[in-house]
Amino acid sequence: MARLEKMPEPERSHIAETKLPTFDTHPWVDGPALSKRRVAIVSTAGLHRRDDKPFTFDPGDNYRVIPGATAANELIMSHVSTNFDRSGFQQDWNIVFPLDRLHELCDDGYIESVAQFHYSFMGAMDPKNLEQSARKLAGLLKKDKVDAALLVPV
Amino acid sequence: MCTRAVGGLAHFIEEEGVPTTQISLIRPHTEAIKPPRALWVPFDLGRPLGVPNDAEFQKRVLLSVLKLFEESSGPVLRDFPEDAPTAKAADVVWACPVNPARKKIDLSDAGEMRAAFKKEMMELRAWYELAVKTQQRTTVGVSGLEMDQIVDFIGAFLDSVPANPREDISLAFSLNFAVDDLKAFYYEAAAAQPGSASPTAEELDNWFWGETAAAKVLFAVKDRCLKKDDKMMQLLGKILLIPMSQSSQFGPNFPAN
Question: Would the ipTM clear 0.90, i.e. be above it?
Protein backbone atom coordinates (compact mmCIF):
# COMPACT_ATOMS: atom_id res chain seq x y z
CA MET A 1 0.00 0.00 0.00
CA ALA A 2 1.23 3.47 -0.78
CA ARG A 3 1.17 4.57 2.83
CA LEU A 4 4.58 6.08 3.35
CA GLU A 5 4.90 4.75 6.89
CA LYS A 6 4.31 1.19 5.65
CA MET A 7 6.78 1.26 2.77
CA PRO A 8 9.98 -0.76 3.08
CA GLU A 9 13.33 0.93 3.33
CA PRO A 10 15.20 2.27 1.42
CA GLU A 11 12.18 3.19 -0.72
CA ARG A 12 10.46 5.05 2.11
CA SER A 13 13.39 7.36 2.78
CA HIS A 14 13.96 7.89 -0.95
CA ILE A 15 10.38 9.14 -1.33
CA ALA A 16 10.28 11.04 1.95
CA GLU A 17 13.48 12.91 1.11
CA THR A 18 12.49 13.84 -2.45
CA LYS A 19 12.89 17.54 -3.13
CA LEU A 20 9.45 18.99 -3.76
CA PRO A 21 8.58 22.14 -5.68
CA THR A 22 6.40 24.73 -3.97
CA PHE A 23 3.99 27.16 -5.58
CA ASP A 24 2.96 30.62 -4.43
CA THR A 25 -0.31 30.59 -6.33
CA HIS A 26 -3.47 28.53 -5.89
CA PRO A 27 -5.12 28.35 -9.32
CA TRP A 28 -8.80 27.42 -9.39
CA VAL A 29 -10.97 27.35 -12.50
CA ASP A 30 -14.72 26.81 -12.16
CA GLY A 31 -16.72 24.89 -14.72
CA PRO A 32 -20.08 23.28 -15.42
CA ALA A 33 -21.58 20.36 -13.50
CA LEU A 34 -19.63 17.10 -13.84
CA SER A 35 -22.37 15.68 -16.08
CA LYS A 36 -21.63 18.46 -18.60
CA ARG A 37 -17.85 18.04 -18.67
CA ARG A 38 -15.48 16.64 -21.30
CA VAL A 39 -12.66 14.61 -19.74
CA ALA A 40 -9.10 13.94 -20.92
CA ILE A 41 -6.55 11.71 -19.20
CA VAL A 42 -3.10 13.18 -18.51
CA SER A 43 -0.89 10.36 -17.23
CA THR A 44 2.67 10.50 -15.91
CA ALA A 45 3.25 6.75 -16.40
CA GLY A 46 5.48 7.11 -19.47
CA LEU A 47 2.75 5.64 -21.70
CA HIS A 48 2.86 5.75 -25.47
CA ARG A 49 1.86 3.85 -28.56
CA ARG A 50 3.94 0.88 -29.59
CA ASP A 51 5.58 2.71 -32.52
CA ASP A 52 6.34 5.93 -30.63
CA LYS A 53 9.84 6.74 -29.45
CA PRO A 54 10.30 5.76 -25.79
CA PHE A 55 10.97 8.39 -23.12
CA THR A 56 14.71 9.06 -22.71
CA PHE A 57 14.96 12.48 -21.00
CA ASP A 58 15.65 14.31 -24.29
CA PRO A 59 15.21 18.01 -23.47
CA GLY A 60 11.81 19.28 -24.62
CA ASP A 61 10.59 15.78 -25.51
CA ASN A 62 8.20 15.60 -22.59
CA TYR A 63 4.92 13.96 -23.55
CA ARG A 64 3.23 11.58 -25.98
CA VAL A 65 -0.20 11.92 -27.57
CA ILE A 66 -2.61 9.02 -27.10
CA PRO A 67 -5.53 9.26 -29.56
CA GLY A 68 -8.86 8.26 -28.05
CA ALA A 69 -9.19 5.34 -30.50
CA THR A 70 -5.93 3.73 -29.33
CA ALA A 71 -6.41 0.01 -28.61
CA ALA A 72 -5.21 -1.50 -25.33
CA ASN A 73 -2.60 -3.60 -27.11
CA GLU A 74 -1.12 -0.49 -28.69
CA LEU A 75 -0.26 1.16 -25.36
CA ILE A 76 3.09 0.38 -23.72
CA MET A 77 5.14 1.99 -20.95
CA SER A 78 8.73 3.29 -21.03
CA HIS A 79 8.89 4.93 -17.60
CA VAL A 80 12.53 5.01 -16.49
CA SER A 81 11.78 3.98 -12.88
CA THR A 82 11.52 0.39 -11.77
CA ASN A 83 10.30 1.34 -8.31
CA PHE A 84 6.58 0.91 -8.91
CA ASP A 85 4.37 -2.03 -9.79
CA ARG A 86 3.76 -2.76 -13.47
CA SER A 87 1.95 -6.07 -13.04
CA GLY A 88 -1.37 -4.25 -12.65
CA PHE A 89 -0.90 -2.52 -16.00
CA GLN A 90 0.12 -5.83 -17.57
CA GLN A 91 -3.19 -7.34 -16.47
CA ASP A 92 -5.49 -4.37 -17.19
CA TRP A 93 -4.56 -1.03 -18.79
CA ASN A 94 -7.41 0.71 -16.94
CA ILE A 95 -5.42 0.54 -13.72
CA VAL A 96 -3.23 3.41 -15.00
CA PHE A 97 -5.17 4.59 -18.05
CA PRO A 98 -8.89 4.28 -17.23
CA LEU A 99 -10.21 4.96 -20.72
CA ASP A 100 -12.74 2.12 -20.72
CA ARG A 101 -14.05 3.31 -17.35
CA LEU A 102 -14.39 6.88 -18.61
CA HIS A 103 -16.49 5.66 -21.56
CA GLU A 104 -18.69 3.70 -19.16
CA LEU A 105 -19.18 6.78 -16.96
CA CYS A 106 -20.06 8.71 -20.11
CA ASP A 107 -22.59 6.05 -21.18
CA ASP A 108 -24.13 6.26 -17.70
CA GLY A 109 -24.42 10.05 -17.91
CA TYR A 110 -21.92 10.92 -15.17
CA ILE A 111 -19.81 12.93 -17.65
CA GLU A 112 -20.73 14.59 -20.94
CA SER A 113 -17.97 13.18 -23.18
CA VAL A 114 -14.46 11.76 -23.47
CA ALA A 115 -11.75 13.80 -25.18
CA GLN A 116 -10.44 13.04 -28.65
CA PHE A 117 -6.84 12.99 -27.38
CA HIS A 118 -5.15 11.96 -24.14
CA TYR A 119 -1.55 12.52 -23.05
CA SER A 120 1.27 10.95 -21.08
CA PHE A 121 4.37 12.42 -19.53
CA MET A 122 7.13 10.38 -17.88
CA GLY A 123 6.96 11.65 -14.33
CA ALA A 124 10.43 10.86 -12.97
CA MET A 125 11.59 14.46 -12.82
CA ASP A 126 11.03 17.81 -11.15
CA PRO A 127 7.74 19.03 -12.66
CA LYS A 128 9.22 22.52 -13.10
CA ASN A 129 11.13 20.98 -16.04
CA LEU A 130 7.76 20.18 -17.59
CA GLU A 131 6.25 23.66 -17.16
CA GLN A 132 6.52 24.89 -20.76
CA SER A 133 5.15 21.66 -22.18
CA ALA A 134 2.30 21.59 -19.67
CA ARG A 135 1.25 25.16 -20.46
CA LYS A 136 1.23 24.40 -24.19
CA LEU A 137 -0.68 21.22 -23.52
CA ALA A 138 -3.39 23.25 -21.79
CA GLY A 139 -3.94 25.06 -25.11
CA LEU A 140 -4.37 21.73 -26.90
CA LEU A 141 -6.83 20.56 -24.24
CA LYS A 142 -8.88 23.72 -24.77
CA LYS A 143 -8.95 23.13 -28.54
CA ASP A 144 -10.36 19.68 -27.77
CA LYS A 145 -13.05 21.45 -25.60
CA VAL A 146 -11.73 19.66 -22.50
CA ASP A 147 -12.91 21.19 -19.23
CA ALA A 148 -11.82 18.34 -16.96
CA ALA A 149 -8.20 17.16 -17.05
CA LEU A 150 -7.76 13.96 -15.05
CA LEU A 151 -4.16 13.59 -13.90
CA VAL A 152 -3.08 10.06 -13.04
CA PRO A 153 0.33 9.21 -11.50
CA VAL A 154 2.01 5.86 -10.94
CA MET B 1 7.64 10.29 -7.76
CA CYS B 2 4.84 10.66 -10.25
CA THR B 3 2.59 12.15 -7.58
CA ARG B 4 5.07 15.04 -7.44
CA ALA B 5 4.85 15.38 -11.24
CA VAL B 6 1.05 15.43 -11.44
CA GLY B 7 0.96 18.00 -8.64
CA GLY B 8 3.13 20.38 -10.64
CA LEU B 9 1.36 19.69 -13.93
CA ALA B 10 -1.99 20.53 -12.30
CA HIS B 11 -0.69 23.95 -11.24
CA PHE B 12 0.49 24.79 -14.77
CA ILE B 13 -2.57 23.43 -16.62
CA GLU B 14 -5.09 25.04 -14.25
CA GLU B 15 -3.24 28.37 -14.44
CA GLU B 16 -3.77 28.23 -18.20
CA GLY B 17 -7.53 27.89 -17.66
CA VAL B 18 -8.24 24.15 -17.77
CA PRO B 19 -9.76 22.65 -14.58
CA THR B 20 -7.80 19.67 -13.23
CA THR B 21 -8.30 16.88 -10.77
CA GLN B 22 -5.84 14.15 -9.83
CA ILE B 23 -5.10 10.96 -7.99
CA SER B 24 -2.41 11.12 -5.29
CA LEU B 25 -0.43 8.03 -4.33
CA ILE B 26 1.89 9.82 -1.89
CA ARG B 27 -0.12 12.05 0.41
CA PRO B 28 2.79 14.09 1.86
CA HIS B 29 3.84 15.12 -1.67
CA THR B 30 0.34 16.37 -2.45
CA GLU B 31 0.09 18.14 0.92
CA ALA B 32 3.27 20.06 0.07
CA ILE B 33 2.53 20.87 -3.59
CA LYS B 34 -1.17 21.73 -3.05
CA PRO B 35 -2.68 21.10 -6.49
CA PRO B 36 -6.26 22.38 -6.95
CA ARG B 37 -8.07 19.03 -6.50
CA ALA B 38 -6.64 15.68 -5.40
CA LEU B 39 -7.88 12.33 -4.12
CA TRP B 40 -5.37 10.34 -2.08
CA VAL B 41 -5.68 6.58 -2.56
CA PRO B 42 -4.06 3.93 -0.32
CA PHE B 43 -2.91 1.73 -3.23
CA ASP B 44 0.45 0.37 -4.40
CA LEU B 45 2.62 2.67 -6.47
CA GLY B 46 1.79 1.80 -10.08
CA ARG B 47 -1.85 0.97 -9.28
CA PRO B 48 -3.64 4.34 -9.08
CA LEU B 49 -7.06 2.81 -9.86
CA GLY B 50 -6.52 0.17 -7.18
CA VAL B 51 -6.87 -3.27 -8.69
CA PRO B 52 -6.86 -4.78 -12.19
CA ASN B 53 -9.96 -6.35 -13.75
CA ASP B 54 -12.45 -4.94 -11.23
CA ALA B 55 -14.45 -2.40 -13.18
CA GLU B 56 -16.83 -1.55 -10.36
CA PHE B 57 -14.03 -0.75 -7.91
CA GLN B 58 -12.17 1.27 -10.55
CA LYS B 59 -15.34 3.23 -11.31
CA ARG B 60 -15.76 4.12 -7.63
CA VAL B 61 -12.22 5.51 -7.57
CA LEU B 62 -12.75 7.39 -10.82
CA LEU B 63 -16.05 8.92 -9.75
CA SER B 64 -14.55 10.00 -6.43
CA VAL B 65 -11.72 11.87 -8.15
CA LEU B 66 -14.04 13.41 -10.77
CA LYS B 67 -16.56 14.52 -8.14
CA LEU B 68 -13.92 16.89 -6.79
CA PHE B 69 -15.02 19.14 -9.68
CA GLU B 70 -18.17 19.74 -7.64
CA GLU B 71 -16.18 21.40 -4.83
CA SER B 72 -16.59 25.17 -4.71
CA SER B 73 -13.06 26.14 -3.68
CA GLY B 74 -9.61 24.69 -3.12
CA PRO B 75 -7.00 23.41 -2.90
CA VAL B 76 -8.90 20.33 -1.85
CA LEU B 77 -7.36 17.00 -0.84
CA ARG B 78 -9.70 14.11 0.04
CA ASP B 79 -8.98 10.49 1.02
CA PHE B 80 -10.48 7.50 -0.78
CA PRO B 81 -12.07 5.43 2.01
CA GLU B 82 -11.47 1.89 0.69
CA ASP B 83 -8.37 -0.26 0.45
CA ALA B 84 -7.79 -2.18 -2.77
CA PRO B 85 -9.58 -5.51 -2.69
CA THR B 86 -7.30 -8.51 -2.16
CA ALA B 87 -7.59 -11.94 -3.75
CA LYS B 88 -10.17 -14.31 -2.30
CA ALA B 89 -8.72 -16.77 0.20
CA ALA B 90 -9.11 -19.69 -2.24
CA ASP B 91 -7.03 -17.87 -4.83
CA VAL B 92 -4.17 -16.89 -2.63
CA VAL B 93 -2.03 -19.98 -3.11
CA TRP B 94 -0.02 -18.97 -6.12
CA ALA B 95 3.00 -20.63 -7.61
CA CYS B 96 4.49 -20.26 -11.01
CA PRO B 97 3.89 -23.32 -13.23
CA VAL B 98 7.47 -23.43 -14.38
CA ASN B 99 9.84 -24.66 -11.76
CA PRO B 100 12.56 -22.08 -11.69
CA ALA B 101 16.18 -23.04 -11.80
CA ARG B 102 16.36 -25.06 -8.59
CA LYS B 103 19.80 -26.23 -9.55
CA LYS B 104 22.40 -24.06 -7.93
CA ILE B 105 23.96 -21.81 -10.52
CA ASP B 106 27.63 -20.99 -10.34
CA LEU B 107 27.44 -17.19 -10.17
CA SER B 108 31.09 -16.85 -11.16
CA ASP B 109 30.49 -18.67 -14.45
CA ALA B 110 28.96 -16.24 -16.98
CA GLY B 111 28.40 -19.04 -19.50
CA GLU B 112 26.47 -21.16 -17.02
CA MET B 113 24.36 -18.19 -15.93
CA ARG B 114 23.51 -17.34 -19.53
CA ALA B 115 22.55 -20.95 -20.29
CA ALA B 116 20.25 -21.17 -17.26
CA PHE B 117 18.72 -17.80 -18.15
CA LYS B 118 18.00 -18.80 -21.76
CA LYS B 119 16.58 -22.19 -20.77
CA GLU B 120 14.25 -20.56 -18.27
CA MET B 121 13.01 -18.03 -20.82
CA MET B 122 12.33 -20.82 -23.32
CA GLU B 123 10.34 -22.73 -20.70
CA LEU B 124 8.17 -19.68 -20.06
CA ARG B 125 7.55 -18.90 -23.72
CA ALA B 126 4.49 -21.17 -24.03
CA TRP B 127 2.87 -19.44 -21.04
CA TYR B 128 3.66 -16.02 -22.45
CA GLU B 129 2.09 -16.96 -25.79
CA LEU B 130 -0.98 -18.22 -23.95
CA ALA B 131 -1.14 -14.95 -22.02
CA VAL B 132 -1.07 -12.91 -25.22
CA LYS B 133 -3.83 -15.04 -26.76
CA THR B 134 -5.99 -14.85 -23.65
CA GLN B 135 -5.49 -11.16 -22.96
CA GLN B 136 -5.33 -10.13 -26.63
CA ARG B 137 -2.62 -7.85 -25.43
CA THR B 138 1.00 -7.61 -24.27
CA THR B 139 3.03 -4.82 -22.70
CA VAL B 140 6.27 -6.31 -24.07
CA GLY B 141 7.71 -4.20 -26.89
CA VAL B 142 9.40 -1.10 -25.49
CA SER B 143 12.91 -2.24 -26.50
CA GLY B 144 11.89 -3.15 -30.04
CA LEU B 145 13.86 -6.41 -29.67
CA GLU B 146 12.75 -10.04 -29.87
CA MET B 147 12.93 -12.01 -26.62
CA ASP B 148 15.86 -14.16 -27.86
CA GLN B 149 17.78 -10.98 -28.66
CA ILE B 150 16.86 -9.50 -25.27
CA VAL B 151 18.22 -12.51 -23.37
CA ASP B 152 21.44 -12.51 -25.42
CA PHE B 153 21.87 -8.74 -25.06
CA ILE B 154 21.37 -8.70 -21.28
CA GLY B 155 23.46 -11.83 -20.80
CA ALA B 156 26.35 -10.30 -22.72
CA PHE B 157 26.76 -7.63 -20.01
CA LEU B 158 27.98 -10.35 -17.64
CA ASP B 159 31.45 -10.30 -19.15
CA SER B 160 31.56 -7.66 -21.88
CA VAL B 161 29.95 -4.48 -23.22
CA PRO B 162 27.73 -5.52 -26.12
CA ALA B 163 27.04 -3.33 -29.16
CA ASN B 164 23.98 -1.11 -28.86
CA PRO B 165 21.16 -2.79 -30.81
CA ARG B 166 19.43 0.57 -31.41
CA GLU B 167 20.74 3.71 -33.06
CA ASP B 168 18.12 6.14 -31.73
CA ILE B 169 18.78 5.69 -27.99
CA SER B 170 21.86 5.19 -25.81
CA LEU B 171 23.21 1.79 -24.78
CA ALA B 172 22.04 2.43 -21.20
CA PHE B 173 18.45 3.05 -22.31
CA SER B 174 18.59 0.01 -24.60
CA LEU B 175 19.53 -2.05 -21.56
CA ASN B 176 16.85 -0.40 -19.42
CA PHE B 177 14.09 -1.12 -21.93
CA ALA B 178 15.36 -4.64 -22.63
CA VAL B 179 15.09 -5.36 -18.90
CA ASP B 180 11.58 -3.84 -18.83
CA ASP B 181 10.54 -6.16 -21.65
CA LEU B 182 12.15 -9.15 -20.01
CA LYS B 183 10.28 -8.55 -16.74
CA ALA B 184 7.00 -7.94 -18.60
CA PHE B 185 7.50 -11.25 -20.48
CA TYR B 186 8.12 -13.17 -17.24
CA TYR B 187 5.27 -11.52 -15.32
CA GLU B 188 2.74 -11.91 -18.11
CA ALA B 189 3.75 -15.56 -18.57
CA ALA B 190 3.51 -16.25 -14.85
CA ALA B 191 0.14 -14.53 -14.48
CA ALA B 192 -1.32 -16.77 -17.20
CA GLN B 193 -1.07 -19.90 -15.09
CA PRO B 194 -4.17 -21.28 -13.34
CA GLY B 195 -4.84 -20.61 -9.66
CA SER B 196 -5.37 -16.88 -9.44
CA ALA B 197 -7.10 -14.51 -11.82
CA SER B 198 -4.92 -11.64 -10.65
CA PRO B 199 -1.73 -12.55 -8.79
CA THR B 200 -0.67 -9.72 -6.54
CA ALA B 201 2.36 -7.58 -7.24
CA GLU B 202 4.03 -9.05 -4.15
CA GLU B 203 3.49 -12.64 -5.29
CA LEU B 204 4.94 -11.95 -8.72
CA ASP B 205 7.87 -9.93 -7.31
CA ASN B 206 8.77 -12.59 -4.77
CA TRP B 207 8.78 -15.25 -7.48
CA PHE B 208 10.74 -13.22 -10.03
CA TRP B 209 13.34 -11.64 -7.75
CA GLY B 210 13.64 -14.52 -5.33
CA GLU B 211 13.59 -17.57 -7.57
CA THR B 212 14.47 -16.99 -11.21
CA ALA B 213 17.75 -17.29 -13.07
CA ALA B 214 16.81 -14.03 -14.82
CA ALA B 215 16.97 -12.19 -11.50
CA LYS B 216 20.37 -13.70 -10.74
CA VAL B 217 21.63 -12.38 -14.07
CA LEU B 218 20.12 -8.94 -13.39
CA PHE B 219 21.75 -8.69 -9.97
CA ALA B 220 25.08 -9.48 -11.64
CA VAL B 221 24.47 -6.96 -14.45
CA LYS B 222 23.55 -4.35 -11.81
CA ASP B 223 26.97 -4.89 -10.30
CA ARG B 224 28.64 -4.47 -13.71
CA CYS B 225 26.71 -1.23 -14.34
CA LEU B 226 27.93 0.26 -11.06
CA LYS B 227 31.52 -0.12 -12.29
CA LYS B 228 30.95 1.81 -15.55
CA ASP B 229 31.96 5.45 -16.02
CA ASP B 230 28.75 6.35 -17.86
CA LYS B 231 26.38 8.21 -15.51
CA MET B 232 23.21 6.61 -16.86
CA MET B 233 24.81 3.17 -16.51
CA GLN B 234 25.61 3.96 -12.88
CA LEU B 235 22.04 5.11 -12.32
CA LEU B 236 20.82 1.85 -13.82
CA GLY B 237 23.01 -0.02 -11.36
CA LYS B 238 21.92 2.07 -8.39
CA ILE B 239 18.14 2.22 -8.76
CA LEU B 240 16.81 1.61 -12.27
CA LEU B 241 17.43 -2.07 -13.02
CA ILE B 242 16.21 -3.55 -9.76
CA PRO B 243 13.57 -2.08 -7.43
CA MET B 244 15.15 -0.75 -4.24
CA SER B 245 12.94 -2.96 -2.09
CA GLN B 246 14.03 -6.08 -4.03
CA SER B 247 17.71 -5.13 -3.87
CA SER B 248 17.51 -4.93 -0.11
CA GLN B 249 15.40 -8.10 0.19
CA PHE B 250 17.15 -10.42 -2.26
CA GLY B 251 20.38 -8.65 -3.22
CA PRO B 252 22.60 -9.96 -0.40
CA ASN B 253 21.51 -13.53 -1.24
CA PHE B 254 22.78 -13.19 -4.77
CA PRO B 255 26.24 -11.71 -4.63
CA ALA B 256 27.47 -10.76 -8.06
CA ASN B 257 30.57 -12.88 -7.84
Answer: yes
